[in-house]
């Protein structure tokens, strides 16, 4: 379990409150990269992650991506985000699971919706971390 220590932020970097576990945010960001935009499709120049790739497998693929995505919600709760933010994160995951499970349409939806990136941005906003990640 990582230890929370006071953070000295450099003048040029984003400010993070002292109460935020930066290692947890880095872990959450790693999950976002893995699921939403870890790989670039060479011909199209579009970034994709495992979420739309796993979505090709009916039900099982979207279920696996959902379980992995719940890590962001669990870590957000551990960091102390509000219940309202947790509810919005769970709604994003539910929408991603329901629409992502529709054959063909769900695969395109997974490429554009990026629920995990949205959830990380929600957590950062709630925690007061001055760092918005692209959607």
Protein architecture, described:
The protein has 135 residues and is mostly helical. It has one domain. Helices cover 60% and strands 4% of the residues. The protein contains six helices and two strands; from the N terminus they run H-E-E-H-H-H-H-H. The protein has helices at residues 22-37, 50-54, 60-79, 83-100, 105-113, 115-127, and strands at 39-41, 46-48. Helix 1 runs antiparallel to helix 6 (115-127), helix 3 (60-79) runs parallel beside helix 6 (115-127) and helix 4 runs antiparallel to helix 6. The longest helix has 20 residues, at 60-79. It starts with 21 loop residues before the first helix and ends in an 8-residue tail after the last helix. It holds the Pfam family DUF4112. This is DUF4112 domain-containing protein. InterPro entries: DUF4112 (IPR025187).
